[in-house]
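User: Fumarylpyruvate hydrolase, Humitalea rosea:
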Amino acid sequence: MADYVIPAPPQASVPVKGGGAFPVRRIFCVGRNYAEHAREMGHDPDREAPFYFCKPADALLTGGADMPYPPGTKDMHHEMELVVAIGTGGANITEADAMKHIWGYCVGLDMTRRDVQGEAKKLGRPWDMGKGFDFSAPMGEMVPAGNFDPSKGKIELKVNGKVRQTSDLSKLIWNIPEVIANLSALVTLAPGDLIMTGTPEGVAAVVKGDLLEGMVEGVGSVVTKIV
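Assistant: Predicted structure for Fumarylpyruvate hydrolase:
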């Protein structure tokens, strides 16, 4: 074991329904993976190659904990997503084999400093501070893959009890096997990697005091309050 010169950071993880925890290595996020969301962001939803950005593993917020409103923004948005957890790694995974690499699923929120992201886009700069800030990845409990079919199912987010986002997983531009195959051709996936698969239309700002309640049919829910 290495003789670390400072205390090693704790292992980021997502609680597993029924007990235990899924250790998280990296968080990959698929951009603009629902056509209507692409349109509302001012982009053509044609099926061009998927693109990705990352959040640090320690951006996770679990257990229904409150989310502090982050500094540096006046326009934080919610983005409701299905999250895929990789249990068996690999490079150049085929679409036919992709589902074998999934350990389970959870429900997550890609919280976004939209004004910061927008300025970065305008200047051709990275999105990191718009997407990868502290507590920017609230997630619910992980469930084993089992017989869940990620090709369909309701995905929805309520803010203060009112529906803000609602769609179906069947509307993903790039489905789960396609995303895994594409991403694994760019990086070698490893056990513990999470893939946030994209958000449907209806993204909007939240403020302190807002209660966010998201769900994916057959997977579970995520809840957090902005404080």
